Amino acid sequence: MTSQQSRELVQGAWRAFASRDPEQVSAVFTEDAEWLAPAGNATAVALGGSNHMVGREAIVHFLTVDFPRLFTKDVTVTFRGFHADGDVVVVEETMEATLSNGNSYSNDYCFIFELRDGLIHRVREYMDTARGARMVFAGQDG
User: What parts of the sequence cross the membrane (predicted)?
Assistant: First the structure.
């Protein structure tokens, strides 16, 4: 794929993620896709999930079922950049939402998408984990 095609594929994937439609989300991942986020990140902890999802089915379930349980409304993503080099696309963004605990959420992210055969094969996700934890767990003991 050209860099432009890779960029367009990942931009389309974000539209699929926003749809929360399992078929649309599933269509952008390889069967053996992986999604890696920092260990102990607030989203994984709050949802009782893993920071390393393996397989299309696990990723689709997270994006269409689990994610909306924590980020319940007003989810907006402001993209800062899509940077592509061949089959690798780096996405810079800010995500804002209302959390299930009523708190406002706003955090900056960097995603590195690795593509294979015109699909997403691996995602590496980076964010400010301490900032995320403060918003997700604010007002809770422990």
Answer: none
